[in-house]
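User: Design a sequence. Structure:
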């Protein structure tokens, strides 16, 4: 087994409960960890034997372009799409962070972490 981590993927997107967030948008940071069997690709050195993390990035990018009200919805959609469109994943963990959320004070970020 092994882990693939794609960290600090940055997106400007239009997610949020408030109407203004859906119009103005905000910066989001996404981290993905995939647990997978790496025994075959570690010997073959062939991408067809590995979990293609570029494909995982493309999936996340596509899901971040769809508007949502809640971070939980975004995270759940990403996990659904990862498992539907990719194989060889034993476990996936996604973290979606909204930077500087409009909560009435100075807050660096708020995050949701989901795993399946």
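Assistant: Done.
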């Amino acid at each position: 087994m092994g882990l693939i981590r794609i960290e600090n993927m940055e997106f400007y997107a239009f997610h949020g409960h408030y109407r203004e967030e859906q119009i103005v948008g905000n910066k989001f940071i996404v981290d993905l960890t995939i647990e997978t069997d790496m025994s075959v690709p570690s010997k073959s050195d062939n991408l067809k034997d590995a979990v293609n993390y570029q494909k995982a990035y493309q999936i996340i990018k596509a899901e971040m372009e769809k508007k949502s009200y809640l971070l939980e919805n975004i995270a759940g959609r990403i996990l659904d799409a990862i498992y539907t469109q990719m194989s060889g994943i034993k476990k996936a963990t996604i973290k979606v962070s909204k930077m500087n959320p409009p909560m009435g004070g100075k807050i660096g970020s708020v995050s949701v972490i989901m795993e399946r």
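The mean pLDDT is 96. The radius of gyration is 16 Å.
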